[in-house]
Design goal:
The protein has 73 residues and is mainly α. It is 55% helix and 0% strand. The longest helix has 20 residues. The N and C termini lie close together (11 Å).
Length: 73
């Protein structure tokens, strides 16, 4: 589960950078759009991780249980 959370935070940060970068000036940034886009990216990343995390446990879903807890990156 730790790997899924790390992946979600990284995805959210990338989304925020992309949305902020689309503005010409920092004063023109639509911060509500940044917040909603970042939250959506993090949620989608977590949902995708439920199906399996390719970087950890051979792609096994964190909900599958077993010997490992999905905390290795």
């Amino acid at each position: 589960m730790k790997a899924a959370l790390i992946r979600a935070v990284r995805t959210a940060a990338q989304a925020a950078i992309g949305i902020i970068g689309a503005s010409a000036l920092v004063t023109e940034v639509d911060w509500a759009l940044v917040a909603s886009g970042t939250a959506l990216a993090a949620i989608l990343s977590l949902l995708m991780s439920l199906a399996g995390i390719p970087e950890a446990d051979g792609g096994k879903s964190p909900l599958a249980g077993g010997d490992s807890h999905g905390e290795e990156l």
